Amino acid sequence: MTHPTTAPPPRTHLDNGGSAPLHPLAREALAQALADGWADPRRLHAEGRRAAALLEGAREAVATVLGARPPEVRFTPSHTASLHAAVAQVSRARRRQGRDVVVAATERAATLHAAEHAARQADGRRVVVPVDGVARVDVEGFVAALGADGAALAALQHANGEVGTVQPLDVVHAAAREHGVPLLVDAGSSVGHLAVPHAWDVLAADPADWGGPAGVGVLAVRHRTRTAPVGPEDPDPWAPGGVSVPLAFAAAVSLQAVEADRVAQDARRRRLVERIRSVVAGVPDVEVVGDPDDRLPHVVTFSFLYVDGEALVTELDRAGFAVGSGSACTAATLEPSHVLAAMGVLTHGNVRVALDRSTTDDDVERFLAVLPGAVARVRAMLGADGL
Amino acid sequence: MTHPTTAPPPRTHLDNGGSAPLHPLAREALAQALADGWADPRRLHAEGRRAAALLEGAREAVATVLGARPPEVRFTPSHTASLHAAVAQVSRARRRQGRDVVVAATERAATLHAAEHAARQADGRRVVVPVDGVARVDVEGFVAALGADGAALAALQHANGEVGTVQPLDVVHAAAREHGVPLLVDAGSSVGHLAVPHAWDVLAADPADWGGPAGVGVLAVRHRTRTAPVGPEDPDPWAPGGVSVPLAFAAAVSLQAVEADRVAQDARRRRLVERIRSVVAGVPDVEVVGDPDDRLPHVVTFSFLYVDGEALVTELDRAGFAVGSGSACTAATLEPSHVLAAMGVLTHGNVRVALDRSTTDDDVERFLAVLPGAVARVRAMLGADGL
């Protein structure tokens, strides 16, 4: 005898920026590497050498995709740890040349905080360059900051993960090279989605963003870029105590996999994003934010007037859809997004949709079918219905 | 038609200190948590809340075993990261009370380096207290250092992972409390093998040592112990960017599992270690090091005269046995062990056997059958046979 049951509503995850479900090949690679690569890769025996070989294989695979040499690639404990370590170690090595750290206003919080910390350690300043209304950095301002006396390091994202806008790396990197200032490029929202940029001295990429596992970060440091460790002595100043070999291996395998069908996924997801933009534009009192063209292929962000972002995320969650919000991005920091604030756009009522490789046309149509109703319900709850 | 094949020699892993194969339950837990807990636990939607619930469940399970309250437990990227963060953050919070860091000479390299770094940051000193011939700390010297003006923090291992010796934590912690100096206890080689100690203010434990995954560390900080972050601002100063929820969950599940049969494993592995000690004592010119009684149940270390440790590890590896060596512990640092040096015992020709829960009587007998011959062959190669 079976009990009557209510099937749980199907879940559709549209919050795939920074934490996507594991790519199927990442899951297989992880299982394989847990069996073969559990040992300490620094040990001399066969088990240790096998783990070391897996780690080296992962390094080579990542290097090939990033356009780097294998010794230039480091694994770290997280994307945040990558950004912290890169800012600290490059600026420490450059202290004689400069004490200031130049950043765009829409850099990730980890970069902004690391820049503040490094500048304070050096008795220097964090120089924050503004962005325009689509989040594109003020290039003249950035180049001027690079040329000013005292710049130890500059940081500029490849693409912003909240609103999708791509930054003009080529012109900024050319200016940085001219002034001898290393450029840290946070490609944590773009690697696996856009072609990997060439214009960088230090490049940070985030496996959790491309369907690899959380708990490991990827950092490439050009051979010519000097670094100096800042913490206690350790054989690996980028990941004291080492990283998980299985996670690094799974990160590399999934990177190869997503790079292999990146162009097809780009076209498919751009088309879905266009479809979302066209339907959302029909909802009253909405603003789609970020650059409409030069952007990540899978991210679209919009802000609704008279709506609380957290309430809308919760309402969509009840309907079976997981989305992000710049105004309630995490449970820990219920603060308006510094990215939206820097752009001068609405910081409330914000929703970000980030499509996974596995997101289907049907997923998107079902989402678009419930979105206007969800917005209306939240507006009604807030008594803003008749405004 | 089948080709005649030579079966690869069976492998027996007897280097299970700090990196053991995954416990079967850890593997199951990891697979479950990869399916259920891949999302960012700080997100507000159902996927994020489920990851957060797994992480909180892991925290509660670890807290129960460690005798701590759940909010006292932090997950870090590695055991080394735990020790670095604990030394840095506790000593930073205590700068008004003291600038020196007191350590035993046989602490892990990560602790020694973190103490050196923290003392230098504070313009203080690292005070290294000597040990005796079995690696037991000079208690009078340690207590005197605790009572001297300027101690910000003291660190003492529960048990040494290289030679097994247990430290007198109770008397040292009583003195530390009397002088108001927080005591950091590195239990990275003992949790899962010995009863968890009670005498600590900060306790570090290593999942990779008990059959959990590498890539995550465990740290418990008593509520009364003050800490101050030292790096860039981050929601989690113990693990900037967060840790892998699946790894933390697998660490917790495997800790519960090994704690459940710890007493039975203690008796079984002590008996096997006694058997190894008795056979090894029959090899000419050998010294068994560490305390013969008050020690880890699964670790035994011996040094052979006229033998190079690295050569012996390699010879045993060829015969199918993975062991560690204090004189060739890692491929990265081919330096004599600072632990053996501090004890004043032979630093060359050193072999450490660390038995896994899965190590059988037969594994040990096969190892003991090949060990004397391997030692003789290495001695012959070195021309020391006739000495």
From TrEMBL, chains A, B:
Cofactor(s) the protein requires to work: pyridoxal 5'-phosphate
Record InterPro entries: Aminotrans_V_dom, Cysteine_dSase, PyrdxlP-dep_Trfase, PyrdxlP-dep_Trfase_major, PyrdxlP-dep_Trfase_small
Domain Aminotransferase class V: 13-367
Region (Disordered): 1-21
The keyword Iron-sulfur is assigned to this record: yes
Keyword S-adenosyl-L-methionine: no
Keyword annotations from UniProtKB, A to Z: Iron, Iron-sulfur, Metal-binding, Pyridoxal phosphate, Transferase
GO molecular function: cysteine desulfurase activity; iron-sulfur cluster binding; metal ion binding
Reactions performed catalytically: (sulfur carrier)-H + L-cysteine = (sulfur carrier)-SH + L-alanine
Comp. bias regions, Pro residues: 1-11
Family to which the UniProt record says this protein belongs: Belongs to the class-V pyridoxal-phosphate-dependent aminotransferase family. NifS/IscS subfamily.
Protein name, entry field: Cysteine desulfurase
Species the sequence originates in: Isoptericola jiangsuensis
Lineage: Bacteria, Bacillati, Actinomycetota, Actinomycetes, Micrococcales
